[in-house]
Write a structure and sequence with these properties.
Elements (H helix, E strand, L loop, with lengths): L1 H4 L17 H5 L2 E9 L4 H12 L3 E5 L1 H6 L1 H9 L3 E4 L13 H19 L5 E2 L10 H8 L2 E2 L4 E2 L8 H9 L7 E5 L13 H15 L3 E2 L2 H4 L7
Parallel strand pairs: 1-2, 1-7, 1-8, 2-3, 4-5, 6-7
Helix pairs in contact: 3-9, 5-6, 6-7, 8-9
């Protein structure tokens, strides 16, 4: 039963899981837009520009090895008022089946790399592909991290049509939702040829404005300061 629960990203059977923002954030009309799998030197700057143009704040779940490769880009995310959090060191498909020691190394290595690049330690963690196991929570406790999944996702790693990505994000969109998109080549498309998130962001911003909601970082929504 526990093994099966680890394959359900929004399950809470293996421990606390932030699926929605706290009630206080929902009452303030806040949602959290999040991006996984970066930073990517071609895609991430374009996503940042798009967020700036739309006046949205977001949270980037960063892969440790990519933070080591592109530390200036991690700093740029923070400089623009967004937050960077921990998305494991290598983003392995086997992450959910690691033993305790390997899980500890994977999370801690990413924590060190992202902290060095950003200048401040992540406080949230999202597992690669949303797959976790019962050994993860003790590791997160040691690293001072809180587990996060999402309320709704655009499936932009699979769906190539930005309109369909947008439709998945905004169907029954409500205050307190945590939205998931991706920046970088993990989407399966060349950043130059088009990333669905880039076209979805302006439409999402318009929809949020029309229903009186605003996108903030997870830290801001959960009682921290906006951005890092």
């Amino acid at each position: 039963m526990l093994a099966g629960a680890g394959l359900v990203p929004r399950s809470r059977l293996l421990g606390p899981n932030l699926v929605r923002l706290p009630e206080a954030a929902a009452r303030r009309g806040e949602v959290a837009l999040t991006f996984d799998d970066g930073p990517d030197p071609e895609a991430t700057p374009r996503v940042l520009d798009c967020l700036d143009a739309a006046a949205l704040k977001a949270t980037f779940f960063v892969v440790g090895k990519r933070a080591r490769r592109h530390p200036a880009l991690v700093r740029e995310i923070v400089r623009r008022g967004h937050a960077v959090e921990n998305h494991s060191d290598r983003h392995s498909t086997a992450f959910g089946w690691y033993g305790f020691a390997r899980t500890q190394r994977e999370v801690a290595a990413a924590q060190a790399a992202i902290t060095a690049a950003a200048g401040v330690a992540p406080v949230f963690f999202r597992a690669p592909f949303g797959v976790r196991n019962p050994l993860l929570d003790p590791v997160l406790a040691r690293c001072g991290l809180r587990y996060v999944s999402w309320s709704r996702r655009g499936f932009d790693t699979i769906v190539r049509d930005p309109a369909r990505v947008m439709a998945r994000l905004v169907e029954s969109l409500a205050a307190g939702d945590i939205l998931l998109l991706h920046d970088g080549v993990a989407t399966g498309a060349s950043p130059r040829s088009g990333l669905p998130a880039l076209e979805a962001i302006p439409a999402l911003a318009s929809r949020l404005q029309s229903i009186g909601l605003r996108s903030v970082t997870l830290r801001a929504a959960c009682g921290g300061t906006d951005g890092q």
